[in-house]
Amino acid sequence: MTAHDTTLEGYGIRLTPAEPRDATEAWALTDAELWSRMTTPWADSVEAYAARVEQQRATPGLYAFTVREAETGEVRGATTFYEYVPAQGRVEIGTTWYGRAFQGGRTNPAAKLLLLTHAFDEWRVNRVALRCDARNERSARAIERLGATREGRLRQHRIAPDGSVADTLYFSILREEWPAVRAGLEGRLRD
């Protein structure tokens, strides 16, 4: 698979297929500190960010999105579906980041609601997984606030971009949990 044509919109945001041309606006929202607990190295230039998007577009089972404000098209960050295995009814959501001005607000719950709705209602998956570096407490709290269940810790699961050996926290939402998770996210977005 290369590029996809899935666009998701609602709750004031739009998820569009990531394009290398998004790099200029997206990269300007990043920095090494913001990226410090991500699982991939920080793209240290617009060109490096564009190359990462090209790599994502070429990866089978990965759907990369640029997260935008719905009315203006302003870039807020990025997210992906990855490890989509239709025959097994599962997908993961990750490689999510937002510019500092969009952290802690409505952007993440809105984006996750759009992604989860697509995964459970369109793709009919049984399970959506999310994960983060165990040291990334902010991400772990955000995932739990979505309504995901913490499944466990994979010890020394990966080597982080800084060379340190890191544990990974795994979370999931199952099909039977989806109605309650949806209601919780919709409630957050109504407030």
Strand content: 25-35%
How many structural domains can be distinguished in the coordinates?
Answer: 1
Q: What's the oligomerization state?
A: single chain
**CATH architecture descriptor text:** 3-Layer(aba) Sandwich
Name the strands of the widest sheet in spatial order. Answer: 1-2-3-4-5-6-8-7
Give the termini distance in whole angstroms: 39 Å
Indicate the radius of gyration in whole angstroms.
16 Å
Write down the secondary-structure element order: EEHHEEEHEHEEH
The number of E-state strands comes to 8
| Biggest sheet overview | 8 strands, mixed
CATH top level? Alpha Beta
The percent of residues in helical segments reads: 25-40%
Descriptive overview:
The chain is of the alpha+beta class. It has one domain: Gcn5-related N-acetyltransferase (GNAT) (Aminopeptidase), CATH 3.40.630.30. The chain has five helices and eight strands. It has helices at 23-27, 46-57, 107-122, 137-146, 178-190, and strands at residues 8-10, 13-17, 63-69, 75-85, 90-98, 127-133, 149-159, 165-174. An eight-stranded mixed β-sheet has the order 1-2-3-4-5-6-8-7, sandwiched between helices. Helix 3 (107-122) packs antiparallel against helix 5. The longest helix has 16 residues, at 107-122. The termini are far apart. Keywords: Transferase. GO terms for molecular function: acyltransferase activity, transferring groups other than amino-acyl groups. Residues 13-176 form the N-acetyltransferase domain. It comes from Microbacterium testaceum. InterPro entries: Acyl_CoA_acyltransferase, GNAT_dom.
